[in-house]
Amino acid sequence: MRYPGLRQTTFEIITIGYEILDGRTLDTNSKWLAERITGLGGLIRRMTTVGDDVDEISSAIREAIRRKTDWIITSGGLGPTYDDKTLQGVAKALGRRLVLNRRALGMIEERYRALAESGVIDSPELTPHRIKMAMLPRGAKPLRNDVGTAPGVLARHGKTMIACLPGVPRELYSIYEKELEPILRKKVRKVYRVERWFTVLKVPESTLAPRIDEIMRRVPGIYLKSHPKSAEGVSRIEVQVIAAANRRGVAERRLEKAVALVKKVIRSLEGIISEERAGE
Amino acid sequence: MRYPGLRQTTFEIITIGYEILDGRTLDTNSKWLAERITGLGGLIRRMTTVGDDVDEISSAIREAIRRKTDWIITSGGLGPTYDDKTLQGVAKALGRRLVLNRRALGMIEERYRALAESGVIDSPELTPHRIKMAMLPRGAKPLRNDVGTAPGVLARHGKTMIACLPGVPRELYSIYEKELEPILRKKVRKVYRVERWFTVLKVPESTLAPRIDEIMRRVPGIYLKSHPKSAEGVSRIEVQVIAAANRRGVAERRLEKAVALVKKVIRSLEGIISEERAGE
Fold first, then answer.
1. A147 plus A16 within the same structural domain
2. Of the given ranges (A28-37, A241-250, B212-221), which has the lowest mean pLDDT?
3. What is the ipTM of this complex?
4. CATH code (residue A102)
5. One domain, residues A212 and A121
6. Distance (Å) of CA B20 to CA A166, A188, A272, B76, B186
7. pTM, to two decimals
8. Are residues B206 and B158 located together in one domain of the fold?
9. For residue B269, what is the domain's CATH number?
10. Which residues of B touch A129 (CB under 8 A)?
């Protein structure tokens, strides 16, 4: 849903993994992130999934930067194995080298020590595969992972921020909530969104829909949608009215204006409003 | 998963809908399509989700065409309402006009007549909103929708085929199975994929993983992955060996070659193969 005239911090979500492209794995991370980010007022403009391939990852990131997105959030491809290539892709997109990040190495060391102490793994030894997870694009910062071994990564490129999260959902949730969301809360432009629903009877949807579209084109910052329903032979229409603005007062005024116009249209068509309620 | 040296028909899946970008709806269509297409031997190179915006849709399609994909499959945005904009986006990307397609109109007419006869809707009248679904990019063909009102659409642009499917899952499944898959079965290059799994004990993953990577780099058309597992304090590694080729015999020879190399490596590391089995 997009509201003309509203200024929002923009996001793109890039998911990395052949297992998603092959249809083996359902990507639920993008929806989870989108819901949280939308809740903060962010605008997700695009989601992209590419495979575990340095060139594909780097192209996807470069394209998002070219579209001047404020934030790129990646998920997947941060692990210790050969086919975890996200940081190589990010480094290539930004034209930077991967360098050993001491803080990331410290986090990884600490995690493996704890895993070895609790008997989950045999040795806390920092093998090349484990050290690989501490090789970050120059200038990037690690984000602490409390439930897995691969730290998240935060990098900046011009006006675009890039946050890389692991693909394992519970690791992604943890890093997002503990490390990334506190940053986003400060940086994402506030959006106020108010909503009203009407249940309309006695008007055919084909008559109401074009009039609803007309109101939407006339009032800035609002969104209207008619959802035709029918139950037990009686056809009814659910009309959703949403208004949004960077200030609460503006959003509320826009909603009242749109609501008045919707009611006028319904009356002029001799329709009946059987219910009026606020949105979630 | 990608196998060097294997020639595959390439696909991109483009999903259209603000409800996905906003995190309200989980996109399950892409996974469903990916699984089916992968099963036919197709290679999905990228998935993209954009909003219900003509420019965004048209950009996403043009980018996929520029990447010389063989097939673009879109889902969503084919319905009767103002914010269903997929066909406008496709028309713009291809530089064609939307024209009334008689066959599409006939399909839509038939569906609304049946819905009116069964009492689901009041009138089978072809309103502008309903006629809109028969406005196809010039030269495109409709794909019959047996469970909803919006036909799917098939268009060609140079060497790229574009198939547009509705976003409602059961409508997408129906059009895919009855209309699109029969075409894909003829057009998609065959791929044979064979698989073997080993359960390996007594070798640390950190030692085995780099040797596995080495084999993968040496034998074309194969894919190896080690999955570390631990159960009841005993750490074990599941090693997956996959070989693929456009001919079955080649795939089988590649698999045997990779399997022999994997066994040699495990023996040289004094590991134990506790189980060897074929893949699903």
1. yes
2. B212-221
3. 0.87
4. 3.40.980.10
5. no
6. 21, 20, 32, 10, 32
7. 0.87
8. no
9. 3.30.70.600
10. 206, 209-210
Which residues of B fall within a CB distance of 8 Å from A34? Answer: 20-23
Q: Is residue B2 part of a domain?
A: no
Residues B57 and B152 both lie in one domain: yes
Note whether B224 and B215 are within 8 A (CB).
yes
pLDDT digits (tens, 9 = 90+) for B13-46: 999 999 999 999 999 999 999 999 999 999 999 9
Chain B residues lying within 8 Å of A122, measured CB to CB: 204, 235
The Cα–Cα gap between B168 and A186 comes to 37
What's the burial of B25, exposed, middle or buried (CB within 10 Å: 0-12/13-18/19+)? Answer: middle
Assigned domain for B103 exists: yes
Q: Do A135 and A225 reside in the same domain of the chain?
A: no
Helix A86-94 crosses helix A54-66 at what angle (to 10 degrees)? 50
CA distance A224 to A1: 10
Q: Does B231 touch chain A (CB under 8 A)?
A: no
Q: Do A20 and B37 touch (CB under 8 A)?
A: no
Is the same domain home to B236 and B222?
yes
- Residue where the block lists tokens 């055919």: A204
Instruction: Decide which of A64 and A221 is more confident.
Output: A64
Say whether both A208 and A227 belong to one domain.
Answer: yes
pLDDT in tens, B185-238: 999 999 998 999 999 998 887 788 888 888 988 888 888 888 877 665 567 889
A82-128, pLDDT tens digit by residue? 889 999 999 999 999 999 999 999 999 999 999 999 988 888 889 88
Pairs of residues, one from chain A and one from chain B, whose beta carbons lie less than 8 Å apart: 147
| Residue that terminates a domain, selected from A187, A221, A245 | A187
Q: How many domains does chain B have?
A: 2
* Domain residue limits at A106: 10-187
Q: Which of B168, B187, B206 is the last residue of a domain?
A: B187
| Nearest-by-Cβ selection for A21 from B32, B44, B53 | B44
Is A120 in contact with B230 (Cβ distance < 8 A)? yes
Beta bridge partners of B278: B196
Backbone region of residue A121 per phi and psi (left: phi > 0; alpha: psi in -120 to 50; beta: other values): beta
Residues A148 and A237 in one domain: no
B62 CB within 8 Å of a chain A CB: no
Inter-chain residue contact B50 with A45, CB threshold 8 Å: yes
Q: Flag if A120 and B225 touch (Cβ within 8 Å).
A: no
> Which residues of chain B make contact with A125, given a CB cutoff of 8 A?
206
**Do B256 and B248 touch, CB atoms closer than 8 A?**
no
What Rg, from alpha-carbon coordinates, does chain A have? 24
Report the C-alpha gap between A56 and A16 in whole angstroms: 9
In a domain, A104, yes or no: yes
A221's torsion region: left (phi>0), alpha (psi -120 to 50) or beta? left
Question: Least CB-CB distance to A235: which of B53, B122, B206?
Answer: B122
Q: Which residues of chain A neighbour B149 with C-beta distances below 8 Å?
A: none
Residue from A12, A22, A224 to probe the interface with B (highest B Cβ count within 10 Å): A22
| d(CA A27, nearest CA chain B) in Å | 8
Give a yes or no: residue B5 inside a domain: no
